[in-house]
Task: structure prediction
Amino acid sequence: MKLLVSGLVLFLGIHSIRMLAPGWRERCVARIGLLPWKGLYSVLSLLGLALIVVGFGQARQTPLAAWLLPAGLRHLNALFTLAAFVLVAAAYVPRNHFRTWLGHPMLAGVALWALGHLLATRFLHDVLLFGTFLVWALACFIGSRRRDRGMARPAASLGGDAATLVLGIAGWAVFAFLLHLPLIGVSPGF
Result:
């Protein structure tokens, strides 16, 4: 679990700098430049992600059950994850209402993904991984919405909404039906 915790601290820590220490971030960018900052940010993010993957894999070898699961929660997780994929797509597709309404649809999507997985899993390492992501995503979402209060919202169109839905649903279907088992080692089971 030490690698998992280390990875979560590094990955989510680096992704929290803008929220927790915006002044420090700006001073670093001014001192070393934007491209070196992005490079360092990327390297540390990838290292954190690698630690999460390896640590989670190790923790799965000796699972410790946290609670019993009602059977229907796996199906609910599928719906939460579908919505999460649509929201993540909304962060990249221009001119969609999801971004206009939420401001930060990727953070909302990460929160839904984490909540859905918390409902569908029962081991301590799952609670640690998904619970940490849920708390982080909610804190960042709230902080980002406060920071952006009063800013103009981007224009949206039905075409942007349609593209967001198609891209999100297609991404979810590919991941759920083709990639989840080979990459994660667990069948979504719906």
About this structure: The chain has two domains: 1-62, 64-190. The mean pLDDT is 94. The CA atoms of residues 46 and 149 lie 31 Å apart.
